């Protein structure tokens, strides 16, 4: 893709911008109760760090939020917890208004995550399903929750 980034250099010095795949949100919420799986613990740490210090700009779209809500409900997360998560994101995350789908993902159900990243000029996408996010077609770096967020010092 040859689409150029439109942010100025001063904006690039600001916090990194990223999209959190639903898999990471679900694992993170599960990890706040159980740390059986390393991916849950790493996801929980990422979410807690964002809540506590907001080290990066979390990018969302209406489609992303809708998926978060429906998948969390399917996983048995209580409605009041889902409401708190959604309210926090609507208050502190940046809403992206995507254009037409870019059809980047081999899994059509993940195109809205790719679109959010591309239209929101994300620096990274955090996922547990890297195969659904082809790095060669995305400007954003595809990482897992246990990897360092591009643009941030390791912690």
Question: What descriptors fit this protein?
Answer:
alpha/beta; five-stranded parallel sheet; Rossmann fold; 5 strands; 155 residues; disordered N terminus; single chain
Describe this structure in a few short sentences:
With 155 residues, the chain is of the alpha/beta class. Helix content is 43%, strand content 10%. The chain has a five-stranded parallel β-sheet with strand order 3-2-1-4-5, with helices on both faces.
Architecture blueprint of SSEs:
Blueprint: H1 9-13, E1 17-20, H2 22-31, H3 38-53, E2 57-60, H4 62-74, H5 79-92, E3 94-95, H6 111-119, E4 124-126, E5 141-143
Parallel strand pairs: 1-2, 1-4, 2-3, 4-5
Helix pairs in contact: 2-3, 4-5
Task: Describe this entry's structure for a reader.
With 155 residues, this protein is of the alpha/beta class. It has one domain (9-143): 3-Layer(aba) Sandwich (Rossmann fold). It is built from six helices and five strands. A five-stranded parallel beta sheet has the order 3-2-1-4-5, sandwiched between helices. α2 crosses α3 (38-53) and α4 (62-74) runs antiparallel to α5. The chain is globular. 35% of the residues are buried. Mean pLDDT is 90; it is low at 1-5.
């Amino acid at each position: 893709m040859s689409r150029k980034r439109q942010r100025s250099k001063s904006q690039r010095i600001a916090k990194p911008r990223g999209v959190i795949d639903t898999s990471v949100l679900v694992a993170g919420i599960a990890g706040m109760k159980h740390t059986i799986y390393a991916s849950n613990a790493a996801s929980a740490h990422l979410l807690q760090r964002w809540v506590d210090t907001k080290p990066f700009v979390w990018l969302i779209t209406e489609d992303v939020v809708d998926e978060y809500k429906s998948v969390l409900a399917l996983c048995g997360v209580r409605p009041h917890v889902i409401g708190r998560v959604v309210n926090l994101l609507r208050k502190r995350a940046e809403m992206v208004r995507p254009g037409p789908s870019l059809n980047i993902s081999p899994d059509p159900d993940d195109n809205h995550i790719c679109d959010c990243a591309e239209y929101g000029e994300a620096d990274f996408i955090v996922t547990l399903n890297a195969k659904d996010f082809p790095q060669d077609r995305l400007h954003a770096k595809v990482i897992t929750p246990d990897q360092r967020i591009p643009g941030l010092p390791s912690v």
